[in-house]
Every structure is written in C-alpha cells, then in structure tokens.
Design brief:
By secondary structure, the chain is an all-alpha fold. The protein has three domains: 3-45; 50-92; 103-174. 67% of the residues lie in helices and 0% in strands. The chain has ten helices and no strands. It has helices at 3-10, 13-36, 40-48, 52-86, 111-119, 125-129, 133-142, 149-152, 155-163, 167-174. The N and C termini lie far apart (113 Å).
Length: 181
Amino acid sequence: MSPSKALLMQITPFVFVTAIAVAGFLIGVIFGRLTWGRLEPSAQAAALEPSPDTSNLERELAAARAQLRPLGEEVDRLKRELVRARKGEAAALPAPDTAAPDIRQLKGVGDKFAQALGAIGLGSIAALAALDDGGVESTDVAIGVFNGRVKRDRLVEQAQLLQGGRVAEYEAKFGKLGGAR
C-alpha cells in the first residue's frame, strides 16, 4: 500500500468531508469575486445617477415650497403682531384697510361682468357673500349673457373668504388675489 493511501485511511470521514466543504467554499468565493466583482463598479455608478422620477419629485418639492413660502411669511408677520400686542404696542400697528375690495378682484369677474352684477344690485363683495343657494340660482338666471357664471366661478365662496379677511386661504384655493382691472 502506498503512503498516500495509508494516510488517507487514517483520516476520519468527518475530517475528509469538512476539508472538501472548505475547499468548495473557497473555490466558490474566489469564483464569485472574480465574476461579480467586475459588475460592482457599474452597478454603483447606476445607483449614483439620479433617476427621472427623482428629478420630477425634486421639482414638485420646490414648487410646493414656493407655494408655502408666502403662507409662512404671513404666519411670521402675524406672530410679530401678536408679540407687539402682548407688549402693549398695539397702537403702533397699522390700521387695517377698511376699503372694501373691488368685485373685479374675484377670479372670473372682469369689467363687463362687474357691471352686469352691479346692475342687479350685486356690485360689492359683501352683497355676493350674503347670497344663499336660492339667491345664486336667481342671480344666474337674471344676469343675462353671464348665465351660470356665479355658481360655476364659485363667486359666493370667493366673496365669503375675502369678506372674512381670509386672503391666504383665498389665494391657496383660487390663486393670487388680483387687483382691480
């Protein structure tokens, strides 16, 4: 019997199986590293590139922040006024604008529509804000060529927000408040 066979016969079967498993594991690790190691840099580069979805989300986030900025400025201004009022500096605050807003500030109301509303007694924001559902229906019928516009343009809702001084809420729902044309 050769010396190598004698040595093999002396090793227990457990040690033999363990040695084969370790050798197989090492071969697998080396082969895997050679194969998959080449793909890692390109996979990393692909992961670092911004996807089109990411850039769209970033644009949407920037637009949302731009919409919130005026509201945040309004909140800050109101907080400053509150602090002044608590300190007794309320007299230093500017007097609120008591002039009634022009009806042409409402979205969808131009000069001709404002004249038509004035002709039926609805030439002010307060008059529009006071309308109920029945008044809206009768106004839409009486307005002539502008039939249906009071309801469709949600003029009563717009007028109620402005009448209540809720300009920030108005601008959030209907867009920036326009000046008289």
